[in-house]
Every structure is written in C-alpha cells, then in structure tokens.
C-alpha cells in the first residue's frame, strides 16, 4: 500500500482492518472534497481580486488536498479488494506519488502560514513594507519542487508485483534488500526535512504569536480566540495527522511497526481537517484591528495593517496618533493581515 510499508512476505491484509481503512477513506473523501472545493473557489476569487501572501499559501494547500482526494478512490478500491491491487499497474506508483506528495507538502504550507502570521505580529512595520505576493509564489514553487523531488522515490524504487492466486498484486507492500538500502535512508530524510523542521518552526511561530497577542490589552478577546484557534488547529493537524506516521520512520527503521498502517490512516485525515485551518486563517485576517483609543505606544501594532499609503516611521508622534484616531473613528479596519 505505501512506499514505506511492510517488508518481507507479510501481507498487509492480515495486519489491518479493511472496514476501518474504508471508513477513514470514505469519511475523508465525503467531508474533504466539498469543503476543499469550496475553499479552492474562495481563495481563487480572493487571489484574483486582491492577492495576499497568505491567500496564495492557502490556495496551494487546498490544491494539495484536492490532489489527494482525487486519487483517494483508487485507495478505496485497493482496500475493498483486500489490500490487493486490481487496477492497472501504472496507477499504483501514480496514486502513491500524489498521496504522499499531498501529505508532505501540507506540512510545508502549514509552516509557511505560521511564519506569515508570526512575522505580521512580531515585526509589523518591517513585514508590512516587505510583504509581497511574489515571495509567497516563489515559496510555493520551491515547496512543490522539493516535495515532488522527494516523492519521486516512488518511481525510483520499482515495486515488485507479487502475483496471487487471483492474478492480483500488492502495491508497495514488500521490498527487496536492494530496495530497502535506498528506502531506509529516505525514511530518515522525510522525517527530518519534511516533518521535524516544519513542525519545530510552526510551534515556535504560533507559541510566540499567541504570547504577543495575549500581552496586547487593546485586542478584542474574540480575535485572540481566533488566533489561538488557528494555532491549535494547525498543531493538532501536525500531532494527530503527521506525527504518528513520521515517527514510524524512526521506530520502524529496520522493520515497520505493526501500527504503521494505522498511522498512515491518520495522515489521510489531513485533507478533512485542513478546512478548519482555512476557516481560522480567513477569519483571522484582521488579527490586530484599530481600537479606540489608539495610544501611541501601541500604534505600531496597528500601523502595518492600516489601509492606504505606506506608513512612514518618521512621522511625529502627535500626527501619527491623530491619523490612527481618525482611521478608527471612521470605523476603518486595519486591513488584511
């Protein structure tokens, strides 16, 4: 079933509950496909109207989930066939390629969203002046290239077709010793580069983002709760969906643990949980609104979000305070973050 699956002659069908696999696949497909298609339409409209870096990142995250959901029915057929591959042979590597690609690139885009949010709060003025959609586009291209290159291992390591009495085969279930010499180091690289690094950066960004927001007295409690919701939803996704399977790369370095296939099922749920990230991210676009009064010591918190001409840090304090008071008094929001 998977690129990093059970070695030896053990058959996966004897190690996993087929009804459980089908239940997770069907649940993910039925809940994830409509919500991700809706999110794709929403972010596509927003990008066309007014492009912001975070919308570009979230649009790419949605695309990665849709790729997984498109190929998920093939995994359903595999599970319904007792974990035997009854489909055309070329669909085996193609399905697994997009399956793993979606899982790992999601962790990178979730990390990028956390960095965008953190920089906008921790360094409001500098980040506002240097925040350009082109950077998000370049970042997205790099993420896709890196992930696609890593997941190309699906094609580099040729799977062995094991013919059964029903003339069926097992897709990426058993590996030869030669194949394992390539796969084992790749497991560790996936664990470090595509999980540990994004997870560590995401934790740092959201912990500090929440800490900064809690320290600001003029931020409404509801907006603080949305920021906390974004952090919790993202970290929950990492811990529940990504951590178990990636840990099995280390725990089962020489021999895959028996719970590995169940850990992979949790990774599939990522496509159904990502819409929660989309919700908190879109609702969280005005994290730091102007509030009356706008005292000068906190003006820098609003400055990077003020609509209109780029603010000049050299404006004298009285004039700066007055400009914020006028903006807030007219009910003008601070723009999108």
From TrEMBL:
Domain G-protein coupled receptors family 1 profile: 35-278
Keyword Transmembrane among UniProt keywords: yes
Bilayer-crossing regions: 20-44, 56-77, 97-115, 135-157, 190-216, 228-247, 259-280
Keyword Nucleotide-binding carried by entry: no
Subcellular location(s) of the protein: Cell membrane
GO biological process: one example: cellular response to fatty acid
Membrane topology of this protein: Multi-pass membrane protein
Gene Ontology MF terms: G protein-coupled receptor activity
Primary residence: membrane
A GO CC term attached to the entry: plasma membrane
Source superkingdom: Eukaryota
Keywords linked to the UniProt accession: Cell membrane, G-protein coupled receptor, Membrane, Receptor, Transducer, Transmembrane, Transmembrane helix
Matching Pfam families: 7tm_1
InterPro entries: GPCR_Rhodpsn, GPCR_Rhodpsn_7TM, GPR40-rel_orph
Family per similarity comment: Belongs to the G-protein coupled receptor 1 family.
Record protein name field: G-protein coupled receptors family 1 profile domain-containing protein
Species of provenance: Gopherus agassizii (Agassiz's desert tortoise)
């Amino acid at each position: 079933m998977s690129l990093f699956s059970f070695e030896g002659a053990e058959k996966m069908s004897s190690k996993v509950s087929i009804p459980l696999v089908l239940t997770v696949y069907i649940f993910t497909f039925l809940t994830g496909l409509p919500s991700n298609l809706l999110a794709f339409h929403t972010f596509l409209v927003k990008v066309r109207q007014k492009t912001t870096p975070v919308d570009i990142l979230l649009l790419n995250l949605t695309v990665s989930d849709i790729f997984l959901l498109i190929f998920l029915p093939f995994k359903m057929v595999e599970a319904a066939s007792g974990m035997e591959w009854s489909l055309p042979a070329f669909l085996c590597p193609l399905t697994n390629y997009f399956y793993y690609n979606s899982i790992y690139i999601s962790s990178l885009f979730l990390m990028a969203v956390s960095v965008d949010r953190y920089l906008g709060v921790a360094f409001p003025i500098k980040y506002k002046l240097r925040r350009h959609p082109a950077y998000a586009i370049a970042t997205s291209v790099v993420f896709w290239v890196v992930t696609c290159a890593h997941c190309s291992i699906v094609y580099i390591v040729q799977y062995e077709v094991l013919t059964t009495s029903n003339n069926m085969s097992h897709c990426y279930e058993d590996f030869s010793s030669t194949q394992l010499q390539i796969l084992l180091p790749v497991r560790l690289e996936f664990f470090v580069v595509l999980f540990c690094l994004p997870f560590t950066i995401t934790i740092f960004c959201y912990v500090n983002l929440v800490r900064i927001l809690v320290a600001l007295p003029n931020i409404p409690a509801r907006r603080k709760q949305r920021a906390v919701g974004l952090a919790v939803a993202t970290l929950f996704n990492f811990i529940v969906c990504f951590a178990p399977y990636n840990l099995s790369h280390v725990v089962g370095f020489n021999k895959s643990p028996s719970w590995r296939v169940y850990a992979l099922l949790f990774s599939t749920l990522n496509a159904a949980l990502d819409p929660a990230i989309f919700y908190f991210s879109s609702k969280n676009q005005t994290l730091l609104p102007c509030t009356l009064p706008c005292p000068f010591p906190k003006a820098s918190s609003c400055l990077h979000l003020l609509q209109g001409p780029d603010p000049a840090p050299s404006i004298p304090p009285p004039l700066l305070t007055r400009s914020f008071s006028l903006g807030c008094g007219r009910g003008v929001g601070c723009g999108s973050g």
